[in-house]
Specification:
The structure holds three protein chains of three kinds.
Chain A lengths: L9 H31 L12 H32 L6 H10 L5 H12 L4 H8 L11 H25 L3 H10 L3 H14 L2 H13 L3 H5 L9 H11 L3 H25 L18 H30 L3 H6 L1 H36 L10 H14 L5 H14 L4 H42 L4 H29 L5 H4 L7 H9 L4 H26 L5
Chain B lengths: L1 E8 L11 E7 L3 E6 L6 H9 L6 E6 L2 E2 L10 E4 L11 H6 L8 H13 L15 H15 L3 E5 L7 H16 L4 E5 L3 H7 L2 E6 L2 E4 L2
Parallel strand pairs in B: 3-8, 3-9, 6-7, 7-8
Antiparallel strand pairs in B: 1-2, 1-4, 4-5, 9-10
Chain C lengths: L3 H12 L9 E7 H4 L5 H12 L2 E7 L2 H11 L7 E6 H9 L26 E13 L10 H6 L6 E4 L5 H14 L3 H8 L3 E5 L2 H9 L5 E5 L2 H9 L4 E4 L5 E10 L6 H11 L2 H11 L2 E2 L19 E2 L3 H20 L1
Helix pairs in contact in C: 5-13, 7-8, 7-13, 8-13
Classes of the chains: A mainly alpha, B alpha/beta, C alpha/beta.
Chain lengths: 542, 215, 333
């Protein structure tokens, strides 16, 4: 390997690639730390943990561990089946629904799950009709696991399917011409293709389950499975002991940090770009039957709660709701907030990914001594934002806003945007980093030799390769922010009512039918957005 | 003898007015036939039709009078090798070769696999992970797998184009040996005249789906 | 370009809305359902503005405790003149902050089940009782006490709220404590098998109940009135318990830091006027704090609990943490 001659402009160019994202990542990290410190020092009190904290941690570890295991098993199985059942009516609907579950408001989904699995739910009625009084154990560990698998397993399936579809066509041809059995095929081709992304996925799912709040209460049956988030809420709201809340938040953060660190060690570099066409051949009938059953099961589990939400929603006076000015305002607020937030997430993630790539690419900073540490640091902090309690973040922001000039309502927007960016960033980086690294490995030399730089290089090299992933990032961050209740309630500004908040307000004052209608509107918006935005990023053939 | 009779295929994205490709070809056992031609002339399509990865619209395909068309790709007595991606990177060389073995992997199979690797000059790399091997070594592991499969027809799709000149020259005798020592009927797609001259008994030119003996 | 319109909209929102500067602004922090477009706030605001020559602004927090915490975090610079919606269980914690001033209102019109009102800091404006609500069509037979509930077969299920995150949840802990004292711990243990689940807030619990998940849900004696009046649905009832029912009195208070204490006190007195008291029942779904000339609308029913339970706020403040701790232990077993 001969070293390419170093261009005289090289250091400044590589710095230009790395610096903006580095500053951005450092800024976000500083901001979060500053908010924590501000909150901890706002009222007298020392950082100490309540007695129960460790017991809470133990149960949460168990609950989150099981949830992660089940979510990933569901994800792997469903992704496998879907990767082989490539053509059927409603496949694309199923795929978008798989991605959508993560971004809908928790209570909406929970009520949907209750409609299906609850005491008076569809499944129960089916059992009764069959003469059985068996019921799904919805309250207790079973319910928590069901809901967590619903939210995260579907997401995992969608992500893993992308990995499976990225297997090179030659590999598939080879496996087919060798006549390997489905099990052998899974072992030698499919498992290796997804194994690399499992640690990251597992970390994300674990973090989400470990910090789960409303689900562990509403479906937990008893306070046994409470998470630290509940204790943080108690400390902040009921007892108003911000220092204790920050101590709990720090405990949560350090446990999660440990986990992220472990998973970073396990992570292998799987950098794949989806292949355009996925060749496939007829499967043995028995295998096909298994695949169909898995697809049907997945469709039943994921679609029925949404169907229940739809059925409930259709009973509301949708016409009146849509004509209602507060609803229109809330929809508009939510949509504009989500659009701005998606834009921010896109910009942030593109810059940070550029930095990550610059820090790993051999032709940029990859051979610097401090590059791996920086790279790990950025990835590490980005994932950790999932473990920052939104209540802590919101209150910290609130305090910060008091110190700053301007109206509180303006800062409320800023706080919401930052909260949304922090929430979406881990997902965005996970989606963008692999193809970006691949692009750098493949085209850096060519681009350098053609002296492509800056905007032109982005347009010619990165954009065509990343546009699909960017479309997914945009859709995901848009919907995450659309469905987020988040820190908004803390600010309590009358002109900042989002659709999810309006929905909660309606349930909070007996207006269940209206709430069901709003849930349907939210569901429909999310599905439409999820299907439209990626299309805006696709190449249009003449 | 491998026989193709008007084996027809129409590319799904082909323009409506283009006629489908019709391949006719005869190739004896223990010979090497090279096939060259311009890109997009149907070389890879021909390989995949024979291997069973593509289904022809009409025509006949047989090996020693056995009709191959009803057989699925995995059960045809055929091995196909690509330019790259012939191995599973995370498996060792010997495990990659053993994928060519039908049935239970016992000691005998393992020995046969190691022997096949040794035949390909890879005795020292039996346990090496595939992604630790050089490009030329990887191709030789894939050839060793065709030996273990005892495939009577070996299809090579640009097997050397990712290799440097020295490695390429070292691989030629191995292809020859497939025909001479193991009696295989080898079809080799290549765009490099040196490959054809070095190993082929017969050189064919493929253009627009038509095969012709090279003058 | 597709993003241009929402971007412009959000920029417009960012610039905020300017209030007319010439009129004094009275800012009231309250909980979201009170400030909602269907809550009492819009009508109260219009009525007060009619002759105060001022601008009333209701600011909604996610809960009344949220409103209090917001004021605490804002300290002396808070924009709030009044905090409205705290209940007597949390009022003591609010008093301890030292942020609140005298309400200065004439309380003679008050007609609370507890009799005379002596607190000069917190002014009651409505009240309701905690009670278990049931659907008489699905659950024809209901228990008449906690002990009767505990003695029922285990498949009789109730949904309650977490005392750490919800006012009714805390109210239930205090209810049992006030009714049973020392015996409350044992009773919680006996009730635990009947608890289908514990939710974060009232909304989640009531949502599950309306889906038919449980026989009874912890709510208010005034909840059935909503179904009767707003939905003309007569199926919902509250179960009267012999021990009595714990009272939730909602109070309002003026902040010491208020820049217009007179206007604020004027508003406090206005809260007890017939105008406001007649707005409250069918918007906030609670009982008015005074006896108005119009009286309670039909549909609220005549029956109120025979026995009223209410614990002294100081006592609550002193023991709350320990009681919640025990509650957690008993329910987690």
């Amino acid at each position: 390997m001969q070293r390419p001659p170093l261009h005289s402009a090289w250091p400044s160019r590589a710095a230009a690639n790395a610096l903006p994202g580095l500053l951005l990542a450092a800024g976000l990290l500083l901001l979060v730390s500053a908010l924590l410190i501000l909150l901890a020092s706002s009222q007298p009190g020392t950082l100490h943990l309540p007695n129960r904290a460790w017991q809470t941690v133990r149960m949460s570890l168990l609950q989150a561990g099981l949830s992660t295991l089940l979510s990933l098993s569901f994800g792997v199985t469903v992704a496998w089946a879907l990767s082989h059942r490539r053509q059927f009516l409603g496949r694309s609907l199923l795929l978008s629904v798989l991605s959508v579950s993560l971004v809908l408001p928790t209570l909406v989904i929970v009520l949907g799950l209750v409609s299906v699995f609850g005491r008076a739910g569809w499944l129960g009625q089916l059992f009764s009709a069959l003469g059985s009084d068996a019921r799904f154990p919805l309250y207790g560990l079973g319910g928590i696991l069901l809901a967590h698998v619903y939210f995260n397993g579907a997401f995992a399936a969608r992500q893993l399917l992308t990995q499976l579809e990225a297997i090179p066509a030659e590999k598939r041809k080879l496996v087919h011409s060798l006549g390997l059995s489905p099990w052998q095929r899974f072992k030698v081709m499919e498992w290796p293709a997804i194994a690399g992304s499992l640690p990251t996925l597992a970390t994300t799912v674990f973090l989400l389950c470990f910090t789960s709040f409303a689900i562990v209460l509403v479906l937990g049956g008893s306070p046994r499975y409470n998470t630290l988030e509940v204790a943080i809420y108690e400390a902040l709201k009921l007892d108003f002991a911000p220092a204790r809340a920050v101590a709990l938040a720090l405990l949560q953060l350090s446990l999660c940090a440990l986990l992220v660190l472990l998973s970073n060690l396990l992570r292998s570099h799987s950098a794949q770009i989806s292949s355009v066409d996925v060749p496939h051949w007829p499967e043995p009938p028995r295998v096909t039957a298994v695949q169909w059953s898995i697809v049907l099961f997945a469709a039943a589990v994921t679609l029925t709660p949404l169907l229940a939400i739809t059925v409930d929603g259709l009973q509301a006076e949708l016409g009146r709701l849509i004509a209602d000015p507060p609803v229109q305002r809330a929809v508009l607020t939510s949509l504009s907030l989500a659009a701005v937030s998606a834009l921010c997430v896109l910009l942030c993630s593109v810059f940070i990914v550029r930095t990550q790539v610059a820090l790993s690419a051999p032709r940029q900073w990859g051979e610097c001594r401090f590059a791996p540490a920086l790279r790990a640091g950025i990835g590490f902090s980005a994932t950790l934002y999932l473990a920052v309690p939104s209540l802590v973040l919101g209150l910290g922001f609130f305090l910060a806003a008091r110190q700053l000039p301007g109206q509180l309502s303006q800062w409320a927007w800023a706080a919401l945007l930052v909260a949304n960016v922090l929430m979406a960033l881990p997902f965005a980086l996970a989606l963008l980093l692999p193809p970006a690294q691949k692009a750098a490995l493949r085209y850096d030399r060519l681009a350098d030799s053609l002296d492509l730089r800056g905007w032109q290089r982005w347009r010619v090299v990165e954009w065509p390769l990343l546009r699909r992933s960017l479309g997914q990032v945009a859709a995901l961050s848009f919907c995450l922010s659309l469905g987020d209740l988040g820190v908004i309630a803390l600010f309590g500004t009358a002109d900042l009512v989002t659709l999810p908040w309006l929905l909660y307000q309606k349930i909070g004052s007996y207006r269940t039918a209206d709430a069901a209608g709003l849930a349907l509107i939210l569901l429909a918006l999310t599905l439409i957005v999820f299907n439209t935005i990626p299309r805006l990023f696709h190449r249009k053939y003449p | 003898m491998l026989v193709l009779e008007k084996l027809s295929y129409r590319h799904p994205q082909a323009l409506a007015e283009t006629p489908p490709w019709r391949f006719s070809l005869r190739a004896e056992a223990a010979t090497v036939t090279s096939i060259s031609g311009v890109s997009g002339g149907g070389k890879s399509t021909l390989m995949e039709l024979i291997a069973g990865l593509l289904q022809p619209t009409s025509g006949a395909l047989s090996w020693n009078d056995q009709d191959l068309l009803p057989l699925s790709a995995g059960t045809r007595p055929i091995s196909l090798l690509f330019q790259q991606h012939n191995l599973f990177e995370h498996l060792s060389a010997v495990d990659n070769v053993l994928l060519g073995h039908k049935g239970k992997v016992d000691n005998a199979a393992r020995q046969a696999a190691e022997q096949a690797l040794a035949d390909m000059g890879l005795a020292a790399h039996v346990q090496a992970r595939a992604d630790r091997l050089s490009g030329g070594q990887q191709q030789r592991v894939a050839l060793a797998r065709t030996l273990l499969r005892r495939s009577k027809v070996v299809l090579l799709d640009e097997p050397f184009s990712a290799l440097d000149d020295d490695t390429r020259r070292n691989a030629w005798p191995l292809v020859r040996a497939l025909a001479d020592d193991h009696g295989c009927c080898v079809l080799m797609v290549t765009h490099d005249q040196r490959d054809c001259d070095a190993v082929a008994d017969r050189q064919l030119l493929l253009s627009e789906g038509q095969l012709a003996v090279r003058a | 370009m597709r993003l241009a319109t929402p971007l412009a909209l959000s920029l417009a929102a960012l610039l905020g809305t300017a209030h007319a500067a010439d009129k004094p602004v009275l800012t009231v922090y309250t909980y979201d359902a009170f400030a909602a477009s269907w809550g009492p706030a819009p009508a109260i605001e219009a009525a007060f503005e009619a002759d105060c020559n001022c601008d009333v602004v209701f600011v909604a927090a996610d809960s009344s405790i949220g409103a209090l915490r917001k004021v605490q975090l804002e300290g002396d610079e808070t924009a709030a003149d009044i905090v409205l919606g705290l209940d007597t269980n949390i009022a003591e914690a609010a008093r301890a902050t030292g942020l609140f001033a005298e309400h200065g209102a004439d309380t003679s019109a008050l007609a609370l089940p507890t009799g005379e009102w002596t607190d000069t800091t917190f002014l009651p404006f409505d009240y309701s009782y905690f009670a278990f609500v049931y659907n008489s069509e699905l659950t024809p037979e209901v228990p008449n006490s906690f002990e009767a509930l505990a003695a029922l077969p285990e498949d009789f299920k109730i949904i309650i709220q977490d005392p750490r995150s919800s006012t009714p949840g805390l109210g239930l802990v205090l209810w049992l404590q006030e009714a049973y004292g020392e015996r409350a711990d044992g009773l919680w243990e006996a009730l635990a098998p009947h608890v289908l689940t514990v939710t974060k807030g009232w909304s989640d619990a009531y949502g599950l109940f309306l889906k038919g998940e449980a026989d009874m849900v912890l709510s208010y004696t005034t909840s059935p009135a909503y179904h009767r009046i707003a939905e003309e649905d007569l199926r919902f009832q509250w179960a009267e318990f012999e021990e009595g029912h714990y009272l939730q009195i909602e109070v309002a208070s003026v902040l010491k830091s208020s820049k217009q204490p007179e206007l604020a006190q004027q508003f406090m007195q206005f809260l007890l006027s017939d105008t406001v008291q007649d707005i409250i029942p069918t918007t906030n779904w609670t009982y008015p704090a005074t006896q108005t000339t119009t009286g309670l609308p039909e549909g609220f029913g005549d029956a109120t609990p025979k026995t009223t339970l209410l614990m002294d706020g100081v006592e609550v403040e002193k023991n709350r943490a320990a009681w919640i701790e025990t509650w957690q232990d008993k329910l987690s077993q």
